[in-house]
Amino acid sequence: MPLYNSETRPKSSGRAVSSTLAEGSLKASTGVSWSPWRVAGAVLAQSCGPAAQVVLFLIHNGSKTGAVLDMNKSVAVTQHPLPKIDLPTHRRSSFMIDEFTVRHHEHISARSFDEVIAAFEAAVGSVEDGGIEDDAGATRSLSDFEARIRSREGASGFMRFLTIDHGAWLARNGLDAKARMYTIGNPLIAWTMIKHDLGAGLNVPVRLMIYEDASSGTVRLAYDLPSSLMSRLGDEEVAAAARKLDAKLGALAELATGAPA
User: Fold this and answer.
1) Is 78 helix (H, G, I), strand (E, B) or coil?
2) pLDDT, tens digit, for every residue of 167-201?
3) Domain containing 10: what range?
4) Which among 32, 40, 70, 208 would be 20 to 30 A from 245, CA to CA?
């Protein structure tokens, strides 16, 4: 099977293939483990031969490589940088599916719901009035923008973008519950990840929920660990910045609940 390089590069039809399907085909074709490479995308290609071929985009710890999967033969992988493939100039609709592991954290507090809420909100600033957009429009320089953001963040380094009081609307449906969901973050923190991969923007700002567990009566602050959410990107620079966000978020949760991670 030819390697995916400049000599054997197939012409692409531009037809996207589900990365999950391609991943399964890769396993079936090789009959051996292809770990640690992960299929990040796939495109159906047109080769000079009669057999259908799929160009696979593989990623591992930020390194990228490629392979050509012949649906009737085995697969060969080269660890050389991927060349550009000849995609058509018009756009085509497609989709891809990824699976990855997320770590969920919950800080269980001995404090009351109101006490945890008060401690949490006191530690974060608020831009729920849309102040970020105003600052971005009025700023004269990067340093000016940073100064404006710093003036809006709380002692924790975070600011609140959105608050949803689930308890308020659940009460109208006859359910007595205490729960608030918050979207919090900081553009200066987000920049440390988004500058490496725009896909990081899916998970910043972060979401968390403070709620009273009905079965135990305990108050909990719950969130998904940012670095685990970012792991899908396979970028070590994003991962390193996300781990710093993990630490800041954990410190805020411990401050609000009195319970360490």
Assistant:
1) strand
2) 999 999 999 999 999 999 999 999 999 999 999 99
3) 1-99
4) 40
